[in-house]
Design goal:
The chain has about 400 residues and is of the alpha/beta class. It has 15 helices and 8 strands. Guanosine-5'-diphosphate binds near residues 208, 210, 320 and 351.
Length: about 400
């Protein structure tokens, strides 16, 4: 894809001011020399005034444009500052331990945003078209998505005159990336239930069971009574895996036999949660079924079963996506959202992938809040998503 990022609209050069052609015949010249001279002077003076006026008008317009640009930039910076303040307050609550894990986990993605961008400037002192094309390739490699990378490049090319080092480029890039995040107030829109029912969905192997284990441990750790429902009845091993996590998290588990009806497990888990006065229920589901059973229909059945005792349930439907699948994760999100309606997303396996840009892609294109990110297989490797930390960990 060849883009000429520098081909920007230029201001039209000043048009030459046309003065009327003055033909002065010999007769006139000899007859009234002074009159002619003063006419010429008057005309010249008039054109000078017109030129001055035109220049003044253009200067005013340029100054006005610059003022507007400045105001817009200030507004943008203020918005970013407000978000940063908000997120800093959140960070104080969450601590910084996870940030280190995130940085470590994102090291492959960071190679693109740090080392590779540094390399762009090797032997060069100015951002040119070739470098912008290379930058675009880097962004796409990180799975940031074509639209997001085009938007970023457009803004960067506009500011290219300010960029003469990789440090400057990265500073602007950070700002551009941060501005791409859609900040949905996930918690404000959530209805809290008692028990609060969270149905966890996603294709096979994305990390649903692991994510439930981690979330259950966190909830338990904060003093909540947690119940886990083993509604992935596809394989016996899936139920066993969940049992291990439940034990680790100190949570109760509701399970049936392998291949039993997952909707029945879901129904039982709500009944048990009410009876046991549980605070939160995590419902594990299958990501694939016997080919004759339609996964979406099965998930809808589970959803209906959860609502039988508590009409608002499930209070949350959390979709788990695997970062290593890159842009494919986006189509999964669209598909599950269309069929079931998703209230939040968890992205796993950000450790060891160079496709960390997919987080930006998801946050900028989908209207669904990214709630959690996972950077490893242990209980501590999952936390609430924080855009500022994420951008910080990328550079
Ligand atoms: N590296 C890494 N592995 C993960 C992460 N989350 C889950 N996994 C692994 O992914 C595999 C599939 O996870 P699982 O929870 O069984 O997926 P499910 O089929 O969606 O329930 C397991 O080996 C997990 O340990 C993560 O954040 N990072
Ligand atoms: Mg599972």
């Amino acid at each position: 894809m060849a883009f000429n990022w520098f081909k920007k609209k230029k201001k039209q050069p000043h048009e030459e001011v046309k003065t009327e052609e003055i033909i002065i015949g010999d007769e006139d010249y000899h007859d009234d020399n002074e009159d002619v001279d003063s006419t010429i002077t008057a005309i010249e003076e008039q054109s000078d005034v017109e030129i001055d006026k035109e220049i003044a008008e253009e200067t005013d317009a340029i100054v006005e444009d610059q003022k507007e640009d400045q105001e817009e930039e200030q507004k943008e910076e203020q918005n970013i500052q407000d978000l940063e303040d908000l997120q800093n307050a959140e960070k104080e609550q969450h601590g910084t331990g996870f940030l280190n894990r995130l940085k470590q986990g994102l090291s492959k993605t960071r190679e693109i945003f740090s080392t590779d961008i540094d390399d762009l400037f090797t032997g060069k002192r100015k951002l040119d078209d070739d470098m912008l094309e290379e930058l675009e390739e880097l962004l796409i490699t990180s799975d940031i998505g074509v639209q997001a990378s085009m938007d970023i490049l457009e803004h960067i090319s506009e500011k290219s005159f300010k960029i003469s080092s990789s440090k400057q480029l990265k500073k602007i890039l950070r700002k551009e990336i941060f501005a791409l995040f859609n900040f949905q107030e996930a918690d404000a829109n959530l209805v809290q239930g008692k028990p609060h029912i969270v149905m966890v969905i996603g294709v096979n192997g994305v990390g649903k069971t692991t994510t439930i284990g981690k979330l259950a441990a966190k909830a338990s750790g904060s003093g909540k009574k947690v119940l886990i429902a083993a509604a992935d009845t596809f394989r016996a091993a899936a139920i066993e895996q969940l049992e291990i996590w439940a034990k680790r998290a100190g949570a109760d588990i509701i399970k049936h036999n392998e291949n039993s009806d997952p909707a029945a497990v879901a129904y039982d888990s709500v009944e048990a949660a009410i009876a046991r006065d549980a605070d939160i229920v995590f419902v594990d589901t299958a990501g694939r079924l016997h080919t004759k059973v339609n996964l979406m229909e099965e998930l809808k059945k589970i959803k209906r079963a959860l609502a039988k005792k508590i009409p608002e349930a499930p209070h949350e439907i959390l979709l788990v996506l695997d970062a290593t699948t890159g842009q494919n994760a986006l189509s999964q999100a669209e598909m599950f959202n269309k069929e079931l309606g998703i209230s939040g997303i968890a992205i796993t396996k950000l450790d060891g992938t160079a496709k960390g840009g997919v987080v930006i892609s998801i946050c900028s294109t989908l209207d669904i809040p990214l709630r959690y990110i996972g950077v490893g297989e242990t209980i501590d490797d999952l936390d609430v998503f924080n855009a500022k930390d994420y951008v910080e960990a990328l550079f």
